[in-house]
Amino acid sequence: MTRAPNLPASNLPVTRHGFTRDGLALSYLDFGGPAERTLVCLHGRSGCARNFVPLAQALGDTFRIVALDQRGHGWSGHSADGSRAAFVADAATLIRRLDCGPVLLLGHSLGGVNAYQTAARHPDLVRALVVEDIGCRFGPPEAEESWPTRWATLDQFLAFMQATPIGINRLLLDSLHEFDDGWGFRFSDENYRPMRAALTGDWSADWAAIACPVLLLRGETSWALPADEAARMAALNPRCELQSFDAGHVIHDDRPAGFAAALRDFFGRHG
User: What is each CA distance from 11 to 50, 53, 58, 63, 116, in whole angstroms?
Assistant: First the structure.
């Protein structure tokens, strides 16, 4: 067990751990806290476990935050298997490994789909669920422009990012790494394509099957979860609460205080 690398200074007793499932090495961060109030966090596409450091700083007095680097992201290994079953099995294996009873579960974007499918297919593992800005129905993936895999200098990287619609995005910066041949991300198009293809479909049956309390959070200016889809999902599962924020797709970055307060209230009532 070692101190997690490159994390900001704080009083959080964060440690990095690893396990192997079906030959793939997976990594996660444990921010410490009461085991009976464990909150497992699943990041979105292009993210990593470090995306939840601000949340751990906000909620660490009450909850034990555990954040997984999902396959193909962060410090976890890459795999050609980007199936729904693989992501769900990874999350379920982590929860069982923690051995602290049914947990609180949070998922953002891709991680939100993984989270609600884990709750639906493994109801014994999840006590209460928060899904951040993602729906249930996904069409075939559209063509996406491939980014360079390496930049020789940070100046070149910053200039490239400033020219993209995304800009300098903190969620992406958490995955920036200095490799031997330059700067790059810990994720790649090679892993995204099968993962995005496997996401295609209608997962409403999983959503309807969730048996625990669930909070669906929507960013009002987000591209990912239209208002009508959020309303449909809330009507589809009577255990669902719906809350909207004046925010984009990454609510936990756009409105960190409100996001943390919403989780504290929901888990306080159901956790």
Answer: 15, 12, 12, 14, 31
> Average pLDDT in the 185-203 region?
90
Residue with token string 């307060």: 261
Find the helix or strand (DSSP H, E) in which 65 lies. Answer: strand 64-69
Predicted confidence (pLDDT) at residue 1 exceeds the cutoff of 90: no
Write down how long the chain is.
Answer: 271
Instruction: Taking each helix axis as running N to C, give the angle between helix 189-199 and helix 110-121, from 0 to 180 degrees, rounded to the nearest 10.
Output: 50
Name the CATH superfamily, with its identifier, for domain 2-139+188-270.
Answer: Alpha/Beta hydrolase fold, catalytic domain (3.40.50.1820)
Closest CA to 195 of 47, 96, 30: 47
CA distance 48 to 215: 22
Yes or no: say if 108 and 252 are a contact pair by the CB < 8 Å rule: yes
Q: 214-219 and 126-132: which strand pairing?
A: parallel
- Which tokens in the block code for residue 28? 């996660």
What is each CA distance from 109 to 5, 6, 49, 262, in whole angstroms?
25, 25, 14, 17
Which residue stretches of 164-226 are H helix? 170-173, 189-199, 204-209
Residue 197 to residue 141: CA distance in whole angstroms: 6
The predicted model scores a pTM of 0.94
Instruction: Find out whether 203 and 114 touch, Cβ atoms under 8 Å.
Output: no
**Domains in the chain: boundaries:** 2-139+188-270
pLDDT digits (tens, 9 = 90+) for 155-187: 999 999 999 988 888 899 999 999 999 999 999
* pLDDT tops 90 at residue 226: yes
Strands (E), 70-125: 103-108
CB 103 within 8 A of CB 67: no
